[in-house]
Amino acid sequence: MADVPRKNSWQLADHIGHTTAHRFEHLLDRAKWDADALRDEVRSYVIAHLGRADGVLIADDTSAIKKGRMSVGMAGQYCGLTGQVENCQVMPMLTYASAAGHAFVNRRLYLPESWTGDPQRRARAGVPEHVAFRTKPQLVIDMLTEELAAGTPFRYLCADAAYGRDPHLRAFCHERQISYVMAVPIDLPLVAARGEVEPVGHVLDRILALGRAGVWERRSCGAGTKGLRVYDWTAVSAAVAGQAPAPGHAHTLLIRRSVSVPTEVEFFLAHAPAHVPVPELIDAAGMRWKIEENNEHGKDLLGLTSYQVRKWTPWHRHVTIAMLALAFLAAMRAALPADADETAGKGKDRLLLEAPAG
I need a surface site. Which of 2, 182, 268, 327 has the fewest CB within 10 A? Predict the structure, then answer.
């Protein structure tokens, strides 16, 4: 949490007066400690301070653009930071969010097949033998399994369309009776009234053809950096082709339309117990952006991707320590008096860094 431009071993060592970075490097590489055990402690700390029965888990991946080919997981792959293929590492993350606050509780490093299928490259980076290729949605399934085993209290899983489109992730949620509100692509196959399969986009076409303003309802889905995020919403019952909901649950298609640019539309598939009110689903859809805030604070304030490590173990240790720092700040912010929230929009970074240590 020090005021250091890049939170790597050398700059942190210089900040506290060390002549070398050996001690920080030892902590991340050779020291004897378990990053997964620390991850479990971070989760317990977050739940103790922010846990609520109506909390949500949010899945998304973030990227770290790096140079060279030696850093574990490094490959030419899609980078969410730039929207194009970059030489980067991709890390699926899991955030816990409630009315009290939000912080990371789990993490994974995505290893492309070019890594998992190269024994020499794996050995140089210290990748454990048991680690096999897993898609990003499969890594989220692994993290969800850990959260269920840990008893993490949450009502919904939220994610963007990169995860909502994956049938295996949805099937896992159906099998475990996990409610979710995930963005989905326009070509997600649904079952139409007469039994034929049609893409999600056709539902919007029929709604627009009705031409009735009353089909849409203007609602906020939460507060953003510029105030309430207000959109026009509509909802219809849905049947996903080849994928039934869990017993007692139902699928609902939420359609969100921009107020200022009506052609900007996003689709959300909700899986929840039957008769859950639509406003609750809209609120859940709005929680997805909390992980974007965690990514921003993690990178800009806490050096989440400032590392200069190349191997598997140091990567997990650095990222988990950054998660711990964010969890501490989120817990301290949650303990501030209610009127402190009024200043959050004016200087949220300062509020995070200046939270009282008591």
Answer: 2
